[in-house]
Amino acid sequence: MRKKIAVIGSGFSGLSAAAYASKEGHEVHLFEKNNEVGGRARHFKTGNGYTFDMGPSWYWMPDIIEAFFNDFGKKASDFYTLVPLDPQFEMVFSDGTMNIPQSYQEMKDLFEKTEAGAGKKLDEFMEDAQYKYEVGMKDFVNKPCHSWFEFMSPKIAKSAFKLDLLTNFQRFVRKYFAHPKLIMLMEFPVIFLGAAPKDIPALYSLMNYGGYKLGTWYPMGGFSKIIGAMKEVAEDHGTRFHVNADVQQINVKNRCASSLTVNQEEIDFDVVIASSDYHHTESKLLPQEYRNYTEEYWEKRVFAPSCLIYYLGIKGKIPNLKHHTLFFENDLELHTEEIYKDKKWPTKPLFYACCPSKTDPSVAPENCENIFLLMPVAPGIEDTEEIRERYFMQMISRLEKHTGTTDLLLKIDYKKSYCVKDFQGDYNAYKGNAYGLANTLSQTAVLKPSLKNKKITNLFYTGQLTVPGPGVPPSIISGKIAANEATKTN
User: Which residue of 65, 70, 151, 272 has the smallest Cβ count within 10 Å?
Assistant: First the structure.
């Protein structure tokens, strides 16, 4: 039966859900509170010629993104040009730098040069990680996670031991490597999963395979090209988009979500899929008696970081800077402890710089650079302009030291900051988190917030606070799962 379906929010999960639900022949309306679609992956243009991606900047797991387009008879290349980055990224340490090559053989050579025997160990690590990737990203994460019985298939049951769900990532990495630089390199990908490596299951070595082995890529024109492509796919199948459309309430009758109040207007629907922040959806859009979780529940969850971001336009070219650069001169464990345990601004922060103009001249005026600085911070901490500026000066100083420049402040052509308060204001993000819930063992699969409202028969949730978790590919998968579940309802 053809249903009228509402999707709230237009991040990757919302776009995915809308596209899949439309493909099944349903009438789909997507509502976005901001003036353009994309959620955290929005972009903006300045009056003086810069184009900034506001959120995601690492194109990993290209096969998962490709699979989305394949489901609609398309290819990513129908919409944008994907280029490999070589080096994939650069890591800056206190005693030098390390460039991570695009070629896997060259990566093995680098590991061997850094630590005797590490080249062979990298093969062993990646063989194990590939198995986890193929089982985890193709079978494990595609479940709606209503019950553990979903994981009782012979393949998953047989794989349970090899998935290393009960081994922590920190210990797992040290089985293979001893050199501090290699350890930091292998632990880096899990930082944005929302916990210290010692608290993340070793299952997530699959990210090392999905990144380092499958390569780091860049969509020419920026991540907004992916958003535009997904929007086009959804529109081609009939999705209707409504921007500047603030959903104020989900109206419930007889345990069914009967309508939405949007910009003070009530609109009837048969099914609702909320890609909006899960906590916001429950605490602000639903009466208390229909919520899955209490405020105490959310207070006890372990959240991934928020972040301090600076969008910078720089006059002139900056030497010795790669597309992706990780500034890891300080202690990774200290920074993660201050994010996840102490929940305070870091004393010796790590940070990341993205300079897409090194690859893509369209994102900055001629002979200028487009730079995105990002420092992970604890969600819910005090956020003032004074604090932001203090850390900005630290990051600029370290960027100058690395690139051998001394006048970056004088060359700033555009500057905008973004932090905890902005994530709260623009995305209704709980405590201003940027990356959803931490992928700890106690918050994996069925232990994540439920994809389905337990008290309303036709309300579903999607995105980084539910299954399978944070990140661009998982969010796309989350939208597909939610659409499949929503379109099965009577």
Answer: 70
